[in-house]
Amino acid sequence: xxxxxxxxxxxxxxxxxxxxxxxxxxxxxxxxxxxxxxxxxxxxxxxxxxxxxxxxxxxxxxxxxxxxxxxxxxxxxxxxxxxxxxxxxxxxxxxxxxxxxxxxxxxxxxxxxxxxxxxxxxxxxxxxxxxxxxxxxxxxxxxxxxxxxxxxxxxxxxxxxxxxxxxxxxxxxxxxxxxxxxxxxxxxxxxxxxxxxxxxxxxxxxxxxxxxxxxxxxxxxxxxxxxxxxxxxxxxxxxxxxxxxxxxxxxxxxxxxxxxxxxxxxxxxxxxxxxxxxxxxxxxxxxxxxxxxxxxxxxxxxxxxxxxxxxxxxxxxxxxxxxxxxxxxxxxxxxxxxxxxxxxxxxxxxxxxxxxxxxxxxxxxxxxxxxxxxxxxxxxxxxxxxxxxxxxxxxxxxxxxxxxxxxxxxxxxxxxxxxxxxxxxxxxxxxxxxxxxxxxxxxxxxxxxxxxxxxxxxxxxxxxxxxxxxxxxxxxxxxxxxxxxxxxxxxxxxxxxxxxxxxxxxxxxxxxxxxxxxxxxxxxxxxxxxxxxxxxxxxxxxxxxxxxxxxxxxxxxxxxxxxxxxxxxxxxxxxxxxxxxxxxxxxxxxxxxxxxxxxxxxxxxxxxxxxxxxxxxxxxxxxxxxxxxxxxxxxxxxxxxxxxxxxxxxxxxxxxxxxxxxxxxxxxxxxxxxxxxxxxxxxxxxxxxxxxxxxxxxxxxxxxxxxxxxxxxxxxxxxxxxxxxxxxxxxxxxxxxxxxxxxxxxxxxxxxxxxxxxxxxxxxxxxxxxxxxxxxxxxxxxxxxxxxxxxxxxxxxxxxxxxxxxxxxxxxxxxxxxxxxxxxxxxxxxxxxxxxxxxxxxxxxxxxxxxxxxxxxxxxxxxxxxxxxxxxxxxxxxxxxxxxxxxxxxxxxxxxxxxxxxxxxxxxxxxxxxxxxxxxxxxxxxxxxxxxxxxxxxxxxxxxxxxxxxxxxxxxxxxxxxxxxxxxxxxxxxxxxxxxxxxxxxxxxxxxxxxxxxxxxxxxxxxxxxxxxxxxxxxxxxxxxxxxxxxxxxxxxxxxxxxxxxxxxxxxxxxxxxxxxxxxxxxxxxxxxxxxxxxxxxxxxxxxxxxxxxxxxxxxxxxxx
Length: 1105
Description:
This protein is of the alpha/beta class.
């Protein structure tokens, strides 16, 4: 078959955009007599509308609003209130669409203000109007204005301010905080609980002084401390320029200043949606507007009250006096319901992806009409990876994002930081690898290797990453010799990446050096990347890549919004302050909704964010006991539940009251709310216990759902490994029983066809194989990547049969010898995978060796220990709560080294011959080989026993567990040290081998484990006896063989204990990974790539143990 010449990586054509008229149709709804009364001309009074999820409460409010407008009432007097910004956006969109259906020309309905607002937007508007009135009155009377501009602070900004204040409290010793809470002041969880507690207090109008009084009255010191903190917080915010108010503070401020006669918005219609989710302060504000309003409708469903943890209370819905109650009855949603249990968390996500693609491809359900609902954020993260692999476009529901979690934003922030400080190597690599630098890990490695060669040719010593940083630094003048060498050495693609980064940084530096504002510099950096056009084109093309482009563009728009607001609040603030402001935000921050239409992508959303929404097909996944219901106490440190009960119900906090039943009831309401989002299809999934997994049990809510919909039991879905009796091609619908799960995507289809074609399973018929071959041929003719055998990695020829490039000598270190002897494939390929940071165990080992060397050579122990411990403390990246115990453990290791040194002197009466003794042994080149092998490294310590003048080799090990006695006898590193010392003595004229005197020259070689000490805190030792002359000769032959094996072109793989920790176990032919799953840090290694990686840098610089 002829394969079409279609490049997998070819740039798709820029799509053409054609504007078409939207298909707007007015939905037909049937309302009962009571509901129709709301739309009658001249309708007045106060109504309460209740109904289950899907009964049409929001739609009734929208139709009531349209009816009032059609009656000629002004739009400025009509207001629909929603508890949150997200729900207000959706109601506004529905209102606009139905108004356009009534009036396609858009000329009949006009309003001079928003007709749909969140309750906080309403409060802001009222406060702004009242503040303007007061300022005018004060100015008229010659008084100084007492109320300045007001700004609503985001949750992320407030969280950041609270954490900064808590850090200051901690640095001052905790002051007013109870002693038992002081260690937690710098912890993120403490700040989150404090913020939630303060929001609940502010919502109920408490002042700092009143909060302090409650703490003292009810003997709750933590409440008193929170009152002092609230006072400090309010004073800090008062000094921050514009009046920054949180949402509860905004409501209280509006209530305090509102004047019924002067500030009433003169409404004729007030429609309140989802009233069950309003907090008491919001309800109080709305009640001020109700008496003067002709028609008031309060709609909600107490069974959908799921925001008690945020202070919401359904009392406003249930207890407000009304003229008439309207019950909308049953739901208009009647989905088919499936419940399935899957045998593993990964399998569950694959099952979800399969169900989504089947709904889209087989049932023609648009992507945007499908949603996946989970209980928490951690479940969404895993789903995002699986859906992306299945080529499913997706977006996160809700309008709040954490900017610093987006790769594109992180790259831009690193670019800004490069203007005022030098980036670390890791930070600079992250800048280069990604959308800003335009590189990828493989290409960056190639570029760095090429630059290393350039530096060697120029006679310099700079690391390649530092050389690259110098080249892209716009403040540094070009050096002619460097440019000429780069022109000779780099290929066109590598030059392209270098020039792109230079152009981007030069544009940002030019704007910065011209005293441009933060927004000017940010725009110059962004514009120079050229990403806006590329992302726009990808977004218009749609699909999974288009959905990701959408999210990236949304993140960048939010970053520019944040920059604008930051400059507005702090005109003189630096770029550094802005970067720190964004990087330190831990909570999601809201973004402006600019979309006129919904994006065509699957919605991933948490259950709480699904309120007020509906989709054709909904998948509720991860319904596990312990996750759903999630029974952790909210605000447990501050006893928030008791605090709310005291304020709302007057219940003394000292009276023991269980909150478990109320929490369980709210969790049950939340689960039902999630399930009731589906109009046509509902799939609920959970994970059952797996043999190799922790115990996982489906939620109790699953049984309740099955009873509600008369489902006997959940369908059991299990994975079926290819090669079993059933053929995957015969499996059409994994809805229950045994099923081989796969995505209905092109890569999955090709993989299945290839597996059937190449399988050795005798149960697969020849006709089935031929059918798989025919389908692969059709796909290959269509130019689909992966269908043609030329694209199958496992069947392609090696790129070269030549050994890896090397210098005149192949130098080995003792650790490399040990690794090569275990598994050459792991030893060679594993070196190409660079850890993001130096592992802590390696750092600890280096410091222990350095300490032992310093003390052995006479350094003061106390001073050496202090310097070593300080260096270890600086290297810790674990949570601060773990630092004290880790440092104490490390100090114990150093004490064990001291004890060993002190114990050895009287016991062995030895003297130090050398510490950190370096060696370099060149083996003779065999006549039948072109490879000369050398061994070099360092011996930790060589002692001479005074009693018999024998030598003793010491090797300190940082491992926490000593090897066995038998393993020590076969330790390759000790054998390397014996061999090196033997060769050195021969070279000096002492020939211990000629008369078989080596065993009389060497006492032993020993492994010493300071981290694995005895009860007396003495390190455990493992001894290796002196090698015989024949063993030394055999070891030399082994070194020659290992050196030749390390060059390939074929690398031997062997199975052993090292496989558990191998970095390449997933691609090893003897590993247990089960599939070719190339780690992202290996980045498609092949022999030709190895040739380019293992260049002269390694052979010239060599490696030491």
